[in-house]
Amino acid sequence: MVAMSGFFRSKVAMYNKTGKEIQNLERDNKGQRLYSGYPHYITENINGDICVSDYGKQAVIVVNKSGQHRFSYTGQESKILPYGICTDILGHILVCETSSQTVHLLDQDGQFLSLLVTSQKGKGNPLCVCVDDDNNLHVGYSGTNTVNVYKYLQ
Questions:
Q1: What is the C-alpha separation between 58 and 39, in angstroms, rounded?
Q2: pLDDT, tens digit, for every residue of 22-43?
Q3: CA-CA distance, 66 to 54, in Å (whole number)?
Q4: Residue 5 phi, psi (nearest 5)
Q5: pLDDT digits (tens, 9 = 90+) for 47-56
Q6: Predicted TM-score (pTM) of this structure
Q7: How far apart are alpha carbons 28 and 53 in whole angstroms?
Q8: How far is CA 76 from the centre of its chain?
C-alpha cells in the first residue's frame, strides 16, 4: 500500500509482492477525488480499512478493503489538520491534529470518542503517533523533538 501525490492529484495504490499495481484508490463511487494533493500518512485497520490523514482536505479519509469510501472525519467543531495516524487492536483510529495540538480517538466507523492527548504548554505539536504491542501510546512532538509514552489500553 502506497500513498502517492502529485500536483493536485493523489491516490492510494496497492501492489502485489512483485510490484504490480492491483488496486488504485483515487475516486469515490461518485467519481469525486478522494484525496487532495497533500495526504500525509496512511495505515490499515484490523478490519482491512485504509485510513489516510489528508492535510489538504482537512480530513481523515477511510475506504474499505474493496476501495469504497466509508467516511471522512473532519473534526468535531471545526476543521482539522490531521497528520500522524495509526490504529489499535480494537480498531480505533488515532490521529494527531496539529491545529489544536491534540490526538483524537475515533471508533472504526469514524465516530469521535475522545481526546487522548491535549495541548500542553512547551510540549510542542504532536505530529506522529503509534501504539506498540504492549498497548503503549507513543506520541512524537515537533518543536521539542521528544517522544512521550503513555499507558493506553489496560
A1: 9
A2: 877 777 777 777 778 778 899 9
A3: 20
A4: -140, 155
A5: 999 999 999 8
A6: 0.86
A7: 16
A8: 16
